[in-house]
Specification:
The complex is a heterodimer of chains A (330) and B (448).
Chain A lengths: L18 H23 L1 H24 L10 H11 L7 H16 L12 H12 L1 H4 L20 H6 L16 H6 L11 H13 L6 H17 L4 H9 L3 H8 L10 H21 L6 H18 L17
Chain B lengths: L3 E2 L2 E3 L22 E2 L5 E5 L9 E2 L6 E2 L4 E4 L8 E2 L4 E10 L5 E9 L17 H11 L11 H4 L10 E6 L8 H8 L1 H15 L3 E7 L3 H11 L9 E6 L8 H9 L14 E5 H13 L5 E7 L7 E6 L4 H7 L9 E4 L6 E3 L12 E5 L17 H5 L6 H9 L3 H6 L10 H5 L6 H15 L3
Parallel strand pairs in B: 2-13, 3-16, 11-12, 11-14, 12-13, 15-19
Antiparallel strand pairs in B: 1-2, 4-10, 5-7, 6-9, 7-8, 9-10, 15-16, 17-18, 17-19
Helix pairs in contact in B: 3-5, 4-7, 10-13
Classes of the chains: A mainly alpha (330), B alpha/beta (448).
Chain lengths: 330, 448
């Protein structure tokens, strides 16, 4: 009998949480945004999503096989990467470009650095930037809602961010015609990438993740809060301008789903605060002073790169440790 | 200062981290039953942290219950007593439940449980006598640590120790023997508290208990409210039940707000922490002079037919105990000595119970016990739950590259291996193993 006993180190009970469960929660949290994108941009949006997710999963499988490593499809992280990438793309994007983006995200950014947990920048975000730089026209072809994105010359619409970039001193009324109402911003009836238009769906997803304790609210709060403060200053106190800035662009998607990526954000609370504020700062600076209308992607990538340094600065102080004296006894 | 809520204190400071482990205190309502006298007992010479004892009897000797059969002249040690009366049949190597071979004495019982005639209540009037009496009783930390109790009370006269904390938290799942101690032996807990207060002159005595033990709390409260406590030194404190609340450093923090520095003992911050069962035992010892020859254990788990709380002679064979509980109702896949968070998985039930064993748990299903191991996703859960504010995932990384200096800097040595990190890890990583490996690396590399 004793031969069948398992002998292993403590603890002998484990929580029910698993990596797969966490990734599944992220997928669930993104479903409202996906549904809204299909609602606005039609089945083309769904098709592009399938292509992105499919090629992400396939490239992860092939990559692990070629590298002679164990199969990691079961953790669902490739599905999450593909899904997040899709939601960052315009619905009219040629399918092969979406697939290319997924391959870049998985192969170059994730697997070449060692797979899940090892990548130093967010895969989906990096892939989006590479696509943006490589195919600027296709990546800025914002189809207007309900215009149907099957045909390449479907009606396009300027994104609210592009419109806001021309606003001086927070006077939104000057461009009121070109902007949707604030409620419109919340529900997403405007041009933009598939997943970022409906802020409400993203906020709902974000709350779901916070309630499920998948993410800590620190990064989204610091990120969005910092942008709010800067926009209030830039808009000379205009609440309307600030609201447009918060609801427009990829801020909600970025703050809740991409800046909170485990691999590329700091571990401790202090680090998370610095990271969130840093993201907000860079986003604001790009939005206000940069020539690009949107800065969420770049801010997250830049902060991703800084994470090791933030981490070194914010190491937790172990229980009972007193401030270290130089040369003194440890 | 502590808040007073209806005369009951709540934690002065709440420790960070910890995990909410399912309590599974299935045996809470089962009073401790006495196990029939076993045919033989096997007594290890190492049943405590510190120096092993040397046998002082030889094969063929007749021994009686409570007779010293192993002792050491070193300070950090505790004598071993015969736990049944009968004849010594072997002195030599024995195998413990965890597979370790050590020196031990086997006694074949004559079934009479004859008491050793030398047993008489000790005279305890001052600290020195108390310390000597505690050592002679053979008591060690009955909560599971097995640290010789007398060492804790060996306080110099100018010591700044002002607080005694009675640890009745029992935060490990399944185990209920301390809980039963509070209910069944309230009298001795009272006596013990009063004894230690009178001899050692503690300024405050805090009996700390988790809030998931209502009956024990009620019984102890009745005591705390009684007239005995005229000078208001004895207080009852409820703690939120959260693993590892019962860990010594956590206890000191919750009860007093003081933090024990790395490598130091609670006495360095003016506290002595004692397990509630050890305390009740000392009180009984001072009254009767009968040394530690038996202890209470919880026998539970999905593979045990009739879970019970048992009082067993130390040295009883684990298989005999399981058989008394009706045997297995399903094939056991894992058997633990101790609780599921910090207990040891044993490879053989043909091994004796030691002084620090507080439970035997047998599980039929490995589903809850094992999680698929995946790569670390840096989710930070281990960092959030670590009660010692460590960063287990970072420690794992440095342990893999064997960077002893860095490991020491990030404080791995304060890790108490409570297992919260590994419990919380969604990737099922064996973090406690890495902590042990990391400590080994630090020890080998020496401090900078």
């Amino acid at each position: 009998m004793s031969k069948k006993l398992t002998v292993s180190p403590s603890p002998h009970v484990r929580s029910k949480e698993t990596t797969t469960g966490i990734m599944l929660d992220v997928i669930i949290a993104l479903i409202p945004a996906l549904i809204m994108s299909v609602y606005y941009f039609g089945l083309r949006a769904l098709l592009l999503t399938f292509v992105c997710v499919g090629s992400a999963v396939l490239s992860e499988y092939v990559c692990r096989k070629v590298m002679k490593r164990n199969n990691t499809l079961g953790d669902l992280s490739a599905v999450v990467t593909g899904l997040i990438l899709a939601l960052n793309l315009p619905s009219s994007l040629p399918l092969w470009m979406g697939a290319l983006g997924s391959i870049i995200a998985i192969v170059v950014v994730k697997q070449m650095f060692g797979g899940i947990g090892q990548n130093f920048v967010n895969p989906a975000m990096t892939a989006r930037i590479i696509l943006m730089v490589s195919f600027p026209t296709a990546m800025a072809h914002w189809v207007a809602p309900f215009a149907g994105s099957w045909s390449p010359d479907a009606v396009t619409a300027a994104t609210p961010m592009a419109v806001l970039a021309g606003v001086e001193g927070g006077d939104v009324s000057a461009v009121a015609d070109a902007l949707p109402s604030l409620t419109g911003m919340l529900f997403g009836a405007h041009g933009g990438s598939m997943g970022e238009v409906c802020s409400l769906a993203l906020i709902a997803g974000g709350f779901y993740l916070i309630i499920r304790k998948v993410i800590s609210p620190i990064i989204p709060l610091c990120f969005i809060g910092t942008v709010a403060v800067f926009m209030l200053i830039a808009g000379k106190g205009s609440l309307e301008f600030t609201a447009y800035q918060l609801l427009g662009g990829g801020l909600m998607l970025g703050a809740f789903f991409m800046a909170t990526d485990y691999s590329t954000s700091p571990l401790n609370k202090k680090g998370k605060i610095i990271f969130g504020i840093g993201c907000g700062l860079i986003t604001s600076v790009i939005r206000i002073f940069g020539s690009l209308p949107e800065g969420v992607s770049f801010s997250i990538i830049l902060m991703n790169i800084l994470v090791p340094h933030i981490e070194n600065l914010t190491l937790s102080k172990p229980f009972g440790f007193v401030k270290e004296k130089k040369g003194g006894k440890a | 200062m502590s808040k007073r809520l209806d005369g009951v204190l709540t934690a002065v400071k709440r420790g960070r981290g910890g995990v909410a482990v399912a309590h599974n205190k299935n045996t809470a309502d089962m009073p401790v039953e006495r196990l029939p006298v076993p045919d033989k007992v096997v007594l290890s010479m190492q049943q405590h942290i510190g120096v092993p004892c040397t046998p002082v009897v030889k094969v063929g000797d007749e021994v009686a219950v409570g007779q010293v059969i192993g002792d050491s002249d070193k300070f950090i040690s505790a004598p071993i007593h015969a736990t049944v009366s009968g004849k010594v049949t072997a002195v030599g190597d024995i195998k413990l439940a965890n597979g370790i071979i050590t020196k031990g004495i086997t006694i074949e019982s004559d079934g009479e449980m004859r008491l050793y005639e030398g047993i008489k209540p000790p005279v305890v009037t001052n600290k020195k006598e108390l310390c000597d009496a505690i050592r002679a009783s053979g008591v060690v930390g009955l909560g599971g640590a097995g640290f010789p109790t007398h060492v804790k009370f060996n306080l110099p006269d100018d010591s700044k120790v002002d607080t005694l904390i009675i640890n009745a938290a029992e935060c490990e799942p399944y185990i209920t023997v301390d809980y039963r101690e509070c209910i069944d032996n309230t009298k001795y807990i009272i006596k013990g508290v009063e004894l230690l207060r009178d001899i050692c002159g503690f300024k405050q005595i805090i009996i700390a208990i988790e809030d998931n033990k209502p009956q024990a709390f009620k019984d102890l409260k009745a005591f705390a409210d009684s007239d005995n406590d005229a000078d208001d030194t004895i207080k009852l404190m409820t703690l939120k039940s959260r693993y590892p609340q019962g860990a010594e450093k956590m206890m000191v923090l919750s009860a007093t707000g003081r933090k024990v520095p790395p490598g130091k003992l609670p006495s360095d911050v003016g506290c002595v922490v004692i397990n509630v069962a050890s305390l009740a035992f000392i009180a009984r010892y001072v009254e009767t002079g009968k040394p530690l020859v038996s202890r209470s254990i919880t026998v539970d788990g999905s593979a045990i037919k009739e879970p019970k709380n048992l009082r067993v002679p130390i040295g009883t064979n684990i298989q005999d105990i399981i058989d008394y509980c009706g045997g297995f109702k399903a094939e056991p896949r894992k058997i633990l000595s101790g609780g599921p968070m910090m207990g040891i998985a044993i490879c053989d039930t043909n091994a004796p119970i030691c002084k620090q064993n507080n439970a035997i748990l047998a599980f039929a299903d490995r589903k809850d016990l094992i999680k698929t191991e995946r790569e670390c996703i840096r989710c930070g859960r281990c960092v959030d739950v670590c009660p010692m504010s460590l960063m287990p995932t970072l420690i794992e990384r440095y342990a893999r590259i064997k960077d002893g200096e860095k490991l020491n800097d990030i404080g791995v040595m304060v890790c108490m291996e409570c297992g919260s990190c590994a419990y919380a890890c969604p990737s099922g990583r064996p973090l406690v193993q890495y902590m042990r490996l990391a400590k080994q690396v630090v020890r080998e590399g020496g401090k900078k």
